[in-house]
Structure prediction request, 165 residues.
Amino acid sequence: MYCPYCRNEDSRVVDSRLVEDGTAIRRRRLCPSCNRRFTTVETTSLNVVKRSGVAEPFSRSKVISGVGKACQGRPVTEDDLNKIAQEVEEAIRAKGVAEIDANEVGLAILAPLRRLDQVAYLRFASVYQGFDSLEDFESAIEDLRSRPAGRDVPPEGDQRPLTAR
Prediction:
């Protein structure tokens, strides 16, 4: 780590603390050359692998944008969207992987969105899961009616979307 004051390439860590809900580490450093202190923030990278095979950094703003489109005209606040994005990121980071398929990001969005607003959930699911017919919507609506919103976590190991069961 280069010192921002004298550009010395050596520094010593004086203090380390978790920040941002444990997703980053704040380090206070001391430069042995000029004896000045500076702060660094270290985060782990999380990449999303798209269908095309291209990997790009995970972005909460993309989650908010996608969910926001599904929630258009619904009684959903910006704070609600931010909470979903945070919940999705935490769920993905909890898997402990550096790369994740875009499909798994979509699956991680479905559960909190279903709890937030069922109409927005249907909108998102219809695009994300590619509903082709009225039967797809009917099946998803029947699933919503048959299971309370709190029971939307798939059984361990079952990666199928809820409406595909």
